[in-house]
Structures are given as structure tokens and as C-alpha cells.
Amino acid sequence: MTNLSILVIFPLLTTLAILFCRNVTQIKWTALIGSLLQLTIASLLMYSYYGERSAGNTAQMLFEARYSWYSAMNIEYYVGVDGISVIMIMLTAFVVTCGILISWKIETLTKEFFFLLLLLSVGAYGFFISLDLFTMFFFLELAVIPKFLLIAIWGSGKKEYSAMKLALMLMGGSALVLIGLLATYFNTDIGGGVHTWDLLKIAHQQIPYETQLFIFPFLFIGFGVFTALFPFHTWVPDGHSSAPTAASMFLAGISMKLGGYGCLRVATYLMPEAAQHYSWIIVLLATIAIIYGAFATLMQKDLKYINAYSSVSHCGFILLGIGMLTKTALIGAVMQMVSHGLMTALFFGAIGMIYERTHTRQIKELGGLLKTIPFLSSVFIIAGLCSLGLPGFSGFVSEMVVFVGAWQQPDAFHRIATILAAASIVVTAVYILRAAGSAIMGPIKNEHFNHLKDATWNEKMASVLLIFAILSIGLAPFWLINIISPDTQIIMENIARGAIGN
Amino acid sequence: MREEQLVIKMNTDFFILLKPELSLTFIIFILLIIKVSDGMNKNSSIIHLANFLLLINFLLGFIGNATGTLFSDMYHTNGLIALEKNILNFGTLIISLQAYEWLKNHKHVIEFYILMLTTLLGMFFMVSSGNFLMFFLGLELASIPLAAIVNFDLEKIKSSEAAVKMILSSAFASCIMLFGISLVYGTTGTLNFAELPALITNNPLQILALIFVFTGFAFKLSAVPFHLWTADVYEGAPVPVTAYLSVISKAAMVFVFISILNPLFENVPTVWYNMLFLTIVLTITIGNLFAIRQNNIKRFLAFSSISQVGFILLGISSGNTMGVSASVYFLIVYIFSNLGAFGVIALVAAQTEKENISNFKGFYKNNKTLSWIITIALFSLAGIPPTSGFFGKMFLVTAGASKGNYVLIIIAVLNMVVSLYYYLRVVKAIFVDENETPIEKIESNLYSKIALYICMAGVIFTGFASVLYDYINSLMQ
Q1: In angstroms, what separates the C-alpha of B51 from chain A's closest C-alpha?
Q2: What pLDDT does B104 receive?
Q3: Is A204 exposed, middle or buried (0-12, 13-18, 19+ CB in 10 A)?
């Protein structure tokens, strides 16, 4: 399991295989088997990554492979993974598999649906393994347009508006990223005026302070749009709520993490001095997003909108962790990415499954579901508890780590931001408990709810997989911290070097 | 003395260097003879023959390309120019394949081919010109017959209107350019491109002359603010002719732009860059803003192609080899993607006479393959990966950024987002919008199928495989 390209090639082959399928059953099974194998590949990758690390391999990136692509511009297909990418790859594999399991009943245009869903996963895998900025950007954009079609064709509600808004805002974000990347590229010099897209080489270049100050906002805001940076979060509620279940899972679970990963790996890592210079703005915006997201969620009556706005709030923690620029906070940010990815995928999955049965997502029309569909209701409650940060689930550990890391910044500004962010958890508890209380518990509101059928095998499998992952982080967070800690250390060292260089 | 030179040049060199032009002339004569002798009057067999000849012509373009000059430096050619001509050959072949559906019932098939190939011949001379006179000759040869084929939907008034608009505006552009050329000659005493750059200085009269020449170019490229003829002509012309106008004649103009204007302005870089800067910003932005409002799909593609020209100029504005190879590469990609879109539109227009975006609502219901083809083509035009349009746009923007003018880059890149909006609008109409009477299943003939599949293969693979770009780049060294 040392050839990383398999991670991209395999889902690509699966999409091609889907094109040649004859009927719906074949399509579904091809997609499922493909994604399960992909999960196996990802697990093997993590296993061998662990093996290499415990054997004492301290190289920054493992399993590197490098092929020249467009040599005139020094563009390479250059891949490699560190702990952070390995974790993100695992997350992607989990969410994609569960998304496919949950979409089992898709009836219209099945072939196109699974084709686009798997194409998205190609983009995500490719993004996480790329170490060449051009290749990375290629995969980032690859993961945008299929979403437009997924939402516009299979979505619900005002789907056309949401799909267009999402596509344009995300492309706007990646346009900003592109400007930042071009400016970075032309400010590198690896000898003889030759520029490079190589992430690791750029990290060791001394890009002038003023140039960094120019580039950093483009990169950070660009990637920030993906991860619901305030005030560029407006695509999130519409996009998530209109998307079909699997697409919402993918959007919230993986797509928003592309942004977080980019903010960390590209913006902060490559522009350490600028990151320090601007960190107070990031902290400010993240805190606003956290509080605003939490209060906006209070006002929502539609389950999907609740989860969408709470995603804005939760993704705020990722950015808060990055903005705090301490090692612990960065670890917390990465953990929050994984945790939020799994938790929100589970939440959207549960909402989707409930909606499929009750045909409503309005809280006041639901009620008493625990009596008729106990399994799905429990899944919903577990997702909710994880979201509000109950100890034992992944949400608690990751938010806790962010707060501890944030507290390490001794000045009043950071302290206040931390306190405000922590206080938002109370608001989270209010909306989650209220939603769970009136939608799941209580009397049965509608006669027709008595005849609902509980989860089918595929839905059970998806829920159990995600809950397993959430619990394994929540109950044993150290294995996750051990994987990502050395890599956040490297990012911190770059930042510290920048501080000395000033 | 001159006669002597001519005699020397008329040896084998003549045939080798002039090969592309000679082979085109040969085809034109064959068609002319058939027409005159009245031997073949079945449309389909004429089209088969023409396609076959064009294929041979295209394949010939790969072999035996040489570097050299003819006619006392009036004409010159090299590897890059040979490639450029073959790109044009290729595009013409694809358009000819796509035109089958429209031409098979047309009364004047041979005339169509003769006129089209004559304009192509003019473009070849233009691309190869080493002197303003030769260039102007080629330009006129390329524009006058073009107006005739714009008028080829003989019974449609709109078509004639388009032709008149085209001939008048193009004559006007030629006038301005000719005036510029005369001023160039007046101030420098030569029209030879090899000698001119050294003689150009910051002299106001020369700058004025060059601005006139540039205006003529901008007119033919339909760069803003000289774009006003484009949309009406595109709308009125038959679809294959629109495709020809938007792809071939534009590509030829860009090639000339690269090989003539860039060196011509070498000594006055600031004037040149400011001029380009303004044109690029206007072209990209206004092309995009107008494209948003269009309902006729040909007008829509007209404005989108205006904004594409802006991106090409952005690449050229870098003034280095990277910009040149990016532009040539992008044009190839552009041919694939634009002809992919036009191919589908041509089929639909030929069978249903429907040309509005609203007619395409619910197109996916009955025409799955065609829908995907036009969607992928539009994505490529919008620059979405994994299509090759992404790579083309990326390289143009990268080349443009090498000047370090980030204002321009920001404007261009944000315009890519705007352009995505209108491309997605068409995609949305095809896939999502409800329509009670969607377009029935379109039967595509073998030729259109081949053309469309070639375009799709090009759109998908020329990006992943860096071979083509590397080849263009190697010609630059």
C-alpha cells in the first residue's frame, strides 16, 4: 500500500465501471463495492502509515511519488501523505461509503447520480494527497461542479437557486485561491529564476514579508469560502438544505474540510509570517461565525437548516483553532475537521432517512418518532449529542482540544474569543435538545407515522459505520492525536521560524 | 535581378514550403472542375469527396514541414506556422463533417466548399506573411468570401442581413488597417516585418499608425469595443458558418496577432501593454455581461467567444514564449470545445430549426449523449477540470500573471466565475428545467458522430496528456 495514486485511480475506475452498467442493481452494487474497497484501501494506507512511523521513519511526507507533468511550467503530479492527509482520506472513505449506502433508494437517473458522487470523491482524494499546488487546485475545482448537478437535479426545495449559489460561491473561492497560488508561484525561485509549485519546496522559500501579506488573504479567504468563513458562509444553509442526502453528507462531511485543510496546509503553512499578522482577523471572524451560527440555528424550524447553520458554527471551531496558532489548537482544528465531518454526515444521513419516511423536515410536524422508528431516532439523537459535545463522542474531544489550545494564548483578546466560543456550546445544547425533544420524543403527531418502517440493512450499516468512527475518536482520542501531532509540529516550526525571521 | 531571384526560388523549395497552400488550391480546383463539368450532382457524394480531400489535406500537414522564406521574404514558414495551419485544417475538417446535416439538401454545396476553402487559403497566406502587403492580400482573401458563405441560408432574410453587416464592417476595418499600414510605410519606408520592429520608436505618428493596425486586428478578433458586428452575424449565419467564424477565422487572426503584432511593438512595450490591458479588461468583462442576457444560443456563444478572445489576449500580453504556447494550446482546446458545442447545436438546428436556450429545456430527456457532449463542451469553455479547457485557461492566466500585474489577473479570474454562471444556466436548462414539449430524439448521422466524438476525445484528453503542450513548446525553442 505504498502507491498513493491508487486512491485516485480506483474511484475513477469505479466511475467508469458505472458507465458500463446495464441496470440499477448493477450500478448500486458497483458503487457500493467500489467504495467499500476504497475504504479498505484507505484503512490499509493508515495501517502502513502507522507501521512506517513506528518503525522510526520521520520523513515529513511518506509514500511520495513524483512525475513530471507540464515540465515547461514545472507542474508535477506529486503526491505524498502525512498524518493529517491520512486522516482526511479515512474521513472521505467513510463518508463516501455511507453516502452510497444511504442513497440506495435513488430512483431517478441512478447512473448519473452515482457517477457524479464518485467523481466528487476522486476530487477529494486527489486534493488530500497532492503536494503540488497545481495538481491540488485541479482536484479542488474537480470537486465543485458535480455538486451543482447533484443539487440541481436531485435536490429539493429551491434547488436551482441553491445549486447556482453554491457553485458560484465555491468557484469564487477557488478563483481567489488561484490568484493566491499564481502569486506564490511567481514569487518562488529554486535556482536560475525557475519557479515551482512544489508545496514542500515553497515552505522553505523565504517569501518576502510584504508579498506574504498580499498573498495570504487570497489563499485564506479563498479556502475559507469552502469552510464557511464568515461572511462567506451564505452558500452553506441553502446548499445543504437543498441537496439530496448523500450530497449534503458529502458537502458538509468532506467538501467543507477541503477548505479547512487548504487554510492549514497551504495558507498558514506557506505564509507563516502573514498568518501571524492576520491571525487576529481570523480569530475574530471565526468567533463571529461560531456565535452567529449558533444563534441563527436557534431560529430554524427545518431539520436540515438546523444542521446546516450548526455546521457554520462548528466549522468556526476549525478556523478558530487555525487562527490561534498554537500547536494544541492546530491539533484541535484537525480533530474538529474529522469529528465534524463524521458527525454532520451522520446527522444529515439521519435527517435524510427520516425525511424519506415522513416527507417532512419541519420540527413542528414531526413527533414521537422514537416509538415507531426507534433505530433511526436513536441515530438522530446520537448525532445530536455528538454535535452538542457530549463527552464520549468525538465532538467533545475536538472542541475541548481547540479550547485548551486557544487558552494558551495569554492575552485578553484571545481569552475573550475563547470564552465566547465556549459559551456557544450552551446555545448548541438548546437547539439540539429542542429539536430532538419535539421531533423524536413526545406524542405521535401524525397518524401516518404509526406505519413507518425502521431502517433497512443499508441504512443500518451506514449509521453503524459512522457511529463506530465517532466513538473510536471520542473514546480513544490519543491515536488520532498521535497521528497528527508531528505534522502540526512541523507547521508550528515554520510559524516559529517566521516569527524569528521578523 | 528580381526575375533571377524568382527563378531560383521556383525550385523544389517552392513546392515544399508552399505545400499547405498548394494542396488547398488543388482541392479548390478539383471542386471547381466538378462544378463546371457538371459531372457529379448528388449532394452526398460531393460531401464525401470533400471530406475525403480535407482529411488527406489534414494528414499531409503532418509530413515534410520545412522552414524557409519565399518571394523575397514576402512569405515565410516554420514548424510553428505549419502547426498553426494544420490546426486550421483540422478545424475546417470537423466543421465540414458537422455541416453534412445542413448541406445534404442544399442547392449549392460545391460553392460552399469553394468559398470556405478560399477563405482558408487567405488565412494561410496571412499566417505566413512576411510583409504587410502579403498580409493584407491574405486578409481580404479571407474576409470577402466569408461574407458570401454567411449568406448561405439563401432564403432567410436574417442571413443576408448578417452578410451585409459583415461585409460592411469588415471593409471598414480593412480601411482603417490600410490607413495604418500606409502611415507605417510613410514613417519607416518599409513594409517588411523583419525590418519594421527596429524602426518603430515612440514617435506619435507611428504609435497612431500602430493603433490603427491594432484596431483592424481587434475588429476581426471582435475584441471590445470593436465587437458590435459579432452577435448579429453569428445569429444570422447558418450554424456551421457561425462555427467557422468563431473558431477558424478567430484562430487565424490570433496566430497572426502572435507572429506580427507582438514583435512589431517590441520597442514600445508600455504603449503596447497599456493598450492590451484596456482591451483585455473590456473584452472579457463586456463579453461576459452581454452573454448573460442572451437567449439565442448562437448569440450566447458569440458573446462567450468574445470573452474567450479576451483570455487569449491575456496570454499574449505576457509577451514571452510561455504566452505564445499557452495561446496556441488554448486555441486547440477552444476548437475542440467550441466545435463540440456547435456540433450539437448544428444537429438540433438542422432538424428542428430551434436555436433558443429555452428550447433546450428538458433536452436531456430524449437526447442523453448529445446533452452530455454539449455540457462537457460548455464546461471546457468555462474552464472546469478535468476538461482541457481548465488547463488552457490556467496556462493563459499563468502566462498573464508572469507580468506581475495582479489587477488584470484578479479581473480575469473573477470573470471566470461570472462566465460560469451563464454556462451553468444552459446546463441547468438542459438537465433540470421542466418543459412540456422537449426536443425530440435527434438522429445524428455518422459524420456528426465522428466529429463530436473527436471533439470529446480532444476535450478530455488534451488536458491530461501534456504531449501536445510540450510539442508546441518545443517548436518555440
Answers
A1: 32
A2: 83
A3: exposed
The partner residue sitting opposite B404, judged by closest CB among A71, A144, A186, is A186
Question: Which residue in B376, B305, B289 sits closest to A149, CA to CA?
Answer: B376
* Phi-psi group of B444: left, alpha or beta (phi > 0 → left; psi -120 to 50 → alpha; rest → beta): beta
C-alpha to C-alpha distance for A395 and A389, rounded to whole angstroms: 5
Write out residues in chain A with pLDDT < 70, as ranges.
Answer: 1-2, 498-502
Please report the pLDDT score of residue A2 as a whole number: 65
Note whether B325 contacts A141, CB cutoff 8 Å: no
Asked if A179 and B406 come within 8 Å (Cβ–Cβ), the reply is yes
pLDDT in tens, B392-440: 999 999 998 888 888 889 999 999 999 999 999 888 888 888 888 778 8
Of B217, B415, B229, B381, nearest to B301 by C-alpha is B381
Contact A138 B385 (CB under 8 A): yes
Span B312-332, mean pLDDT?
A: 89
The answer, for A164 touching chain B at a CB cutoff of 8 Å, is: yes
Instruction: Locate A474 and state its grid cell.
Output: 471520542
Q: What is the mean pLDDT of chain A?
A: 86
Average pLDDT, chain B: 86
Q: Which residues of A touch B409 (CB under 8 A)?
A: 179, 182
Q: Which of A281-295, B9-23, B128-142 has the lowest mean pLDDT?
A: B9-23
Sign of the CA dihedral with A74 first, then A78, A84, and A87 last: positive
Angle between helix B388-401 and helix B368-382 axes, rounded to 10 deg: 10
d(CA B331, CA B340): 14
Q: Which amino acid is at A130?
A: S
Could you tell me if B473 lies within 8 Å of chain A, comparing CB atoms? yes
* Chain B residue numbers touching A171 (CB-CB < 8 A): 416-417, 420
